[in-house]
Specification:
rotamase; 4-stranded antiparallel β-sheet; alpha+beta; globular; 45% helix; 3 domains; disordered N terminus; Chitinase A, domain 3
Length: 471
């Protein structure tokens, strides 16, 4: 199995390779691995090698699976050399993941379609954020967003099942303070890492609300378009001309087939009330306002086309968001509510609100952010702040381009130092927990690895694919 070792600062406090492989796409900070899986960074049209390199019962491992894991490790190494047998070690982790899938099938461990769809939507939103827009993502692959999701669906489903199996095997493992101290005491003093300045930063975000006049103008425009279609003009041509959905607009508004619960509820509910060829009233969703036409029903799936218009926001809308934040800030400063509670209750940024507003380190998922890697907008704001201070409302643009305001809170500021139990207990505790969970997984694999058939490509014949290992 793959355990944490203490032979270098690079390895200290890292999750296992197995954990990294099984968590591709699932954890924050996996942009390189995620895009490697999709193929981002390679020229359009170039095909990844997809030869089958391992068979394990009814599961297979593709060459591209291994290549994606290797790309992730290269990115994490940040230019430092990797172990010469890194591909064997990565392949071991992937094979062990496939063993989990095989046992999950036997033990009836499954995930729901809703869970898969939710994860697919989250990942697509992340990809769009990284590459700039839905249109750029679709142009890069020459595929609509729907097809990109379909291409990833099986992979996502498998990864979620693997994650569920890991939770079943090691999810209840905990560490005591004594075990944390014992773990730390085993680390050679000359192997303790030196941490740069780290901060914990919280935010509460309020989106600019569209004013009523802008909404009514958008609805009126869509009703005009609807009347033109009813008078004989082409839905598809008007969608190409007016729709602000970059993915479907160029395709005449065509979205293709979706199953229930794959689209936002407002859109789906309106579409399913229609007969083929019929158009909906104007429908509002989180994306804007839609005019929908049902094309076809097929079993539990349906296909539609739509025209999307987005109301323009105005200065008054941002001012309203600022007013809301100013009131929240006064309540927090008066100790009538905590920052964490206010973020969970009121922030429009659901990613950070779930953690009480704290921004997450994309490398390890913790709340500690290296100062030298902060977003410049945050860095220059907190640079002169004292711990505990909260900014007045500040202009902010979300990753998907929406106007907003936010307040920032500097929770902590830890100066540069060598790892120690006082300042880094959370990190050390997590590393100790990772090690203990890996031991639980080791025991599970030892118990179950003899129950499967395995065949490897000759080029990987020397890799001991079901044997314990370390990284």
């Amino acid at each position: 199995m793959v355990n944490i070792t203490f032979d270098s600062m690079t390895h200290f406090f890292r999750t296992s390779v197995r954990g990294a492989l099984l968590s591709v796409f699932l954890l924050a900070g996996t942009a390189v691995a995620s895009f490697a899986q999709l193929g981002v960074g390679r020229p359009v049209g170039r095909q990844l090698a997809d030869a089958i390199i391992v068979k394990i019962d009814n599961q297979i491992v593709l060459q591209s699976d291994l290549d994606a894991g290797y790309a992730q490790e290269v990115a994490r190494a940040e230019g430092k050399p990797l172990p010469p047998d890194i591909r064997c070690r990565l392949l071991q982790s992937i094979v062990m993941g496939k063993l989990m899938l095989a046992k999950a099938e036997t033990d009836s461990v499954t995930v729901t379609d809703d869970q898969v769809n939710s994860e697919l939507n989250r990942r697509m939103a992340y990809f769009v954020q990284q590459i700039g827009s839905e249109k750029k993502l679709e142009e890069f692959y020459n595929k609509p967003l729907k097809q990109l999701k379909d291409d990833l669906r099986t992979q996502v489903q498998e990864q979620l099942v693997q994650q569920k199996m890991q939770e079943t095997i090691a999810g209840k493992v905990t560490v005591t303070p004594r075990e944390v101290r014992q773990y730390f005491s085993r680390i050679p003093k000359d192997s303790l890492p030196y941490f740069s300045t780290e901060v914990e930063v919280g935010q509460i975000v309020k989106l600019a609300q569209v004013n009523e006049s802008a909404k009514q103008a958008t609805i009126a425009k869509l009703n005009e378009i609807k009347a033109r279609i009813q008078a004989g003009e082409s839905f598809e041509e008007l969608a190409k001309q007016y729709s602000q959905d970059p993915g479907s607009g160029a395709q005449g508004g065509y979205l293709g087939f979706f199953k229930r619960k794959e689209l936002v509820p407002e859109y789906e509910a309106a579409a399913l009330r229609l007969e083929p060829g019929q158009m909906s009233p104007i429908v509002e969703s989180q994306f804007g306002f839609h005019l929908i036409q049902l094309i076809e029903r097929k079993g539990d799936s349906f296909s539609t086309r739509h025209i999307l218009l987005k109301p323009e926001t105005g200065g008054n809308d941002v001012n309203a968001a600022a007013d809301q934040l100013a009131k929240l800030r006064r309540r927090i400063l008066a100790d009538s509510i905590t920052f964490a509670k206010a973020a969970k209750d009121a922030s429009d940024d659901k990613t950070s609100s779930a953690s009480g507003g704290l921004l997450a380190n994309r490398q390890d998922g913790s709340s500690y952010l290296p100062l030298d890697k902060l977003d410049p907008a945050i860095f220059f704001t907190i640079d002169t702040m004292k711990v505990g201070h909260i900014t007045p409302p500040l202009p902010y643009r979300t990753d998907d381009g929406k106007d907003a305001m936010r307040i920032l809170w500097l929770k902590s500021n830890t100066p540069p130092h060598q790892a120690n139990l006082k300042d880094d207990y959370q990190k050390i505790s997590q590393a100790a927990l990772n090690e203990k969970k890996n031991k639980a997984l080791d025991e599970w694999f030892s118990k179950n690895r003899g129950s499967v058939y395995l065949e490897a490509d000759p080029q990987y014949a020397d890799c001991k694919l079901l044997a314990p290992t370390t990284l």
